[in-house]
Write a structure and sequence with these properties.
This protein is α+β, with helices and mostly antiparallel strands. 52% of the residues lie in helices and 16% in strands. The protein is built from 15 helices and 18 strands. The strands form four sheets. Strands 1, 2, 3, 4, 5 and 6 form a six-stranded antiparallel β-sheet that branches. Strands 8-7-11-10-9 form a five-stranded antiparallel β-sheet.
């Protein structure tokens, strides 16, 4: 495929990927933005509705206050007013007291001027009850026991709005606006007020109009539905509509939540304490989002198409054509081998740099060709004098061999000196420290004992370091000798276990050995086998803070398998490759938690291999490690 075709195909693929990504991102962004916009618009509308509702309630409250100031309403002469205390149903008759009839007319005028008021009434302290219109059923009724009367008495002289309560003779659920009334002597006469039924309140709220095609809902501070287009939910708790989302709306002042197939945007009236909400169907939001996404998506596609066309034209003239010319020239040079062909550089920027670099490369190739011709001539000259050159090189190699042998002798002398000059005084220091700690030279105080113990421990640590360095040096120099003789592995394990057990007990670790006593012997150096076991067990105890350390030994076919396991810190896969290298440790630097030279496992591996064995390990961080040593048995 030509360069232009590849560019077009890749450009189309990239364009499709960009469009898909942008469509997904745009959908998410526009969805959130549209929901936020609808929530903001709805919130503003709810504030306006709250203002209208608050104004309506406030106007009713003020009118009730005015109603309580009528002279006829404040009359103390209520002995002949209608009373339902002893009403008997069919035989009941209303009072024809002229004063009561005047009050009834006042109440009816009030109700007619307030279309959303269901009834206007007055309860008296003597049990009388005056109403704008006759009751639906003249049953026994004591206004003094009704919620509207009791809450007014709890707030004397104040206009009070009751919680929703059920009517006695009808299925209405009312909200009362009431106030206590007194005579000139400040004697309580009773309570006057009016009722707004939830049905009337629903009509009022719904008449204000929903927002964004949503339906209105009104609930009081305790979660009771006061107004809703679905009247079957009136006077029910809001949980009947919201379910598990009820707490979200009751605990928050304002906001929006997703309920079933709708979004509920709600607002708490600062004056009434009620919550107004608008249930907006999700389909309405989805339609708006889809319209906006499609418009934006089409605009993006047109923009990308225009950018693509302009970009491809520029790429063709600034990149593809110059590269085509450069490719044609290079193909001609490849076919003819003529490095004298001149490369014409077109374009600018990286294309120009590429052309000049190619021309420079051709010049260097031409120069290299000339140098290669000269080298061939020199090779012919060397070929003619090869015997002389070999003789000179042989003499130089003999000198290098003598220097290497001399260095090896010096190394052996150094190792011998190290063995004598360092280990001898260290052994003396350890011995004298032990004598002093045994108090053979006199009693010691606690601080002297602590300091001498530190000297002894440091000396032993240094001696172990020197021994490890000498061992690894001898192994690398090929000077470490291994005596190959039959070795009883169970006996070696028992001996090492006795030596190492006190160290395990000091750390509170359990040392377990599981050994098959009927296994065959191996051919090797008994002391070195014990050194291998001692190194592995010492490491296991050092890196285990709690749990157990164990040794298992069994014969598998023609091999003896020894497993040294622990419940220590374990080793990650990344660090396992470092274990058998000299001076290599999993932890390094000044902050490491465990001391050591990093030579123990390296020496162990080399000793095992010198006795024709092999060593491997399995480990998991935090779950411990298992080192597996395998030796061939002596075949009879």
């Amino acid at each position: 495929m030509k360069l232009l075709g590849r560019v077009l195909s890749q450009y189309l693929i990239i364009g499709l990927v960009v469009i898909l990504i942008m469509s997904a991102v745009l959908s998410s962004i526009l969805r959130d933005q549209e929901i936020d916009d609808i929530s903001d618009d709805t919130m503003e509308s709810l504030e306006s509705i709250d203002f209208a509702l608050s104004t309506f309630i406030e106007s009713v409250e003020q009118d009730v206050l005015g109603l309580s100031m009528y002279e006829d309403v404040l009359t103390p002469y209520d002995d002949n007013f209608t009373s339902f205390l002893n009403a008997t149903g069919a035989n009941f008759t209303y009072s024809d007291d002229p004063l009561e009839l005047k009050i009834v007319e006042i109440f009816r005028s009030f109700q007619q001027s307030h279309p959303y008021v269901n009834s206007v009434y007055m309860g008296r302290e003597n049990g009388a009850f005056v109403r704008s219109y006759p009751r639906a059923e003249p049953t026994q009724y004591d206004p003094r026991n009704r919620p509207w009367y009791e809450i007014a008495l709890e707030n004397p002289g104040e206009i009070v709005r009751t919680a929703p309560y059920s009517s006695v003779t009808t299925d209405d659920v009312n909200i009362g606006i009431v106030i206590t009334i007194y005579d000139t002597n400040e004697t309580l006469l009773g309570v006057v007020g009016c009722d707004i039924t939830l049905e009337e309140l629903t009509d009022y709220v719904v008449s204000t109009g929903g927002t964004n095609d949503g339906s209105m809902i009104l609930i009081d501070g305790s979660g009771t539905i006061l107004a809703y287009e679905n009247e079957s939910y009136l006077f029910e708790n809001i949980s009947a509509v919201l379910g598990l989302s009820t707490k979200d709306i009751l605990d928050a002042e304002n906001g929006s939540i997703h309920v079933n197939d709708s979004y509920l945007v709600f607002y708490t009236s600062p004056q009434l304490g009620w919550k107004l909400g608008s249930m907006i169907p999700s389909v309405v939001i989805e339609e708006k989002i889809n319209d906006q996404v499609m418009t934006t998506f089409l605009f993006v596609i047109l923009t990308l198409a225009l950018i693509s066309i302009i970009t491809l034209i520029l790429i063709h003239y600034t990149i593809i054509r110059p590269l085509g010319a450069l490719t044609g020239t290079s193909e001609m040079i490849a076919e003819t081998g003529d490095l004298s062909n001149k490369i014409e550089v077109h374009g600018s920027g990286e294309i120009e740099i590429l052309g000049r670099s190619f021309a420079s490369m051709m010049e260097r190739l031409s120069s290299e060709k000339e140098k290669r011709t000269e080298v061939l001539k020199e090779l012919e000259l060397y070929r003619d004098h090869l015997e002389e050159i070999v003789e000179v090189r042989t003499h130089e190699l003999e000198k290098a061999k003598e220097a290497a042998e001399s260095a090896d002798h010096l190394k052996s002398a150094f190792l011998a000196t190290m063995s004598h000059e360092l280990r001898t005084p260290l052994n003396s220091i350890i011995g004298f420290s032990g004598i002093l700690l045994q108090e053979l030279a006199g009693p010691l105080n606690e601080e002297q004992r602590r300091q001498l113990s530190m000297v002894e421990g440091s000396s032993e640590h240094l001696l172990a370091l020197i021994n490890d360095v000498l061992d690894i040096s001898k192994i690398e120099a090929g000077q470490l000798t291994i005596s190959m003789a039959p070795v009883s592995v169970p006996d070696s394990i028992d001996k090492v276990a006795r030596t190492i057990r006190p160290l395990a007990e000091r750390k509170g670790l359990k040392l377990e050995t599981v050994v098959d006593r009927n296994i065959s012997n191996i051919k090797g150096d008994g002391r070195r086998v014990e050194q291998v076991l001692l190194n592995l067990l010492s490491n296991a105890i050092k890196f285990t803070d709690q749990g157990r350390v164990g040794v298992e030994c069994e014969q598998v076919g023609d091999e003896i398998v020894i497993k040294v396991s622990d419940t220590g810190i374990g080793i990650s896969k990344e660090d396992q490759n470092k274990l058998f290298k000299p001076f290599s440790q999993v932890e390094s630097g000044l902050t490491r938690h465990y001391d050591g030279t990093g030579l123990g496992l390296s020496i162990t591996k080399k000793l095992v291999e010198m006795m024709d064995g092999r060593i491997s390990m399995e480990s998991e961080p935090g779950k411990g490690s298992v080192f597996i040593v395998t030796f061939p048995v002596i075949r009879t």
